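Colleagues,

Please find the record for the two-part complex below.
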Amino acid sequence: MKHNHRKQAGSRLVELFHAYLLNHAHGLFSSLGRLSRTPFTSAMTILVLAIAISLASSFYIVVANIQQLTGNLESSNQMSLFLHDNITDAAGQKLAEQIQQNGSVVEVKFISKKQALEEFKANSGFSDALNALERNPLPSVIQVVPKNALENNEDIEKLMSDFKQFPQVDFVQVDMQWVARLQTIMLIASRGVMLVSLLLGFAVTFITGNTIRLELQNRQDEVFISKLVGATHAFIQRPFLYTGFWLGFISGFLGWLIMTIMLLILETPVEKLSTLYNSSFDLLFLSFSEFILLLMISSVLAVVGSWAVLHYQLRQLKPQ
Amino acid sequence: MLRFEHVSKRYPDAGEALTDVSFHLHRGEMAFLTGRSGAGKSTLLKLIAMMEQCTRGSVLLDGQDITRIGERKIPYMRRNLGLIFQDYKLLNDRTVFDNVALPLVVSGYNHQEVARRVRASLDKVGLLGKEKKHPLALSGGEQQRVGIARAIVNKPKLILADEPTGNLDPDLSAEVMFMFEQFKQVGVTVLIASHDIELINHLGHRVLTLDKGHLIAS
């Protein structure tokens, strides 16, 4: 008898669980159906959300692209030793060999005045103007690549001052310095993007919350009647939370689409610019995992906004 | 089954709606609640339905004090009640079946059980075969019977009806009252707020009369 009773209680639990799952499935699809029944309102809300999301992700992708560009420069903490004008090629070559002996140096390359001029003529497109000059204005250069271990500034500075000791050397320039400056600028830019994205994220949360609040008002009778027949808050708010989820999910996808279309429009001119600079720069798009993350973030933000409104409003709505 | 003990209800801006009301309804008892408009009938029903809380005294439902019940427990307590309204309070964008099924869906019954009970309930009110219709396609009397089917589908211990015949003609009213008497037969307690004195006297059940918040006859 007791055993039988327990069995009954168990099957009621299973029944409750099944009904619970069914309820969720119903909420998931009925909320989608409800959105499609007011296409104009839904489209307006989703578009506003999608634009906010596409703005945030566009900022992100622009910074990611510039970082990719400066990232390539990072490894070139190359030093250029500009030699005095009166140093002959042979003396310059000799100094290069001397520097090669230094333990903290990986690669040394001597570029004579003549080579420098040829290179400059080839790359700059000023060959005619340069031909018009009476004498070669370019100095000889020794390019030094320090060991990778010398990543911190102090070591680099020490090497720099060592090189400055040579009487043949006019001045030393570290390419690192402007890279470091650019990277600091990029750091500020990416932080700015983060702040703007945060604001746009809040916008997504509030817009969804407000949409759900209006929806709740439109369906007040349903909420009252459900309350009167013994529905819990969790039961009542479920379809609304799913509505919020769909708003976030669909606008996340649409936001991604808008951003991708914008990138596709920009791709050709960027490639053109890239070839003009003799570089092979590929425009970066959102990766698949970033795309999934975007969908998740926009869905979660929308659900949080809906939940906050429901949590507050459902307690306010008392059946009359 | 339902016991009021020295219950008073005061609204902050409208003054005292109920003053020291005490009565007891037994299991399977049927009673009418009468009084002029503003006598406190609605307030009394709202206290039982846990839509309002009384200021003093206590309301006991099946031995449990529902005046001190936590907000979270209210939904579960309400599942013991069947509520019927003058304006039916049906969801007009859903079918008759879905309207009647709502209390069961809310309580988490499986599909077969919901379908079985909804049909049994609609059968009792004589609306079997109209499951797929929408409320607005039905007559007033039929809509009220949908409301009644919804109230009994969860096998409640207590049925509360607020002016259930207020919008119905005498024949339909008598029909609805006959249904309530049938519920009483199977052990359900029924409390009906009404000012249809003629009908009440004709049926001859217990009558609770309110006047300006006081229970003057029970």
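Chain A has a mean pLDDT of 86.

Comments are welcome before we finalize the supplementary table.
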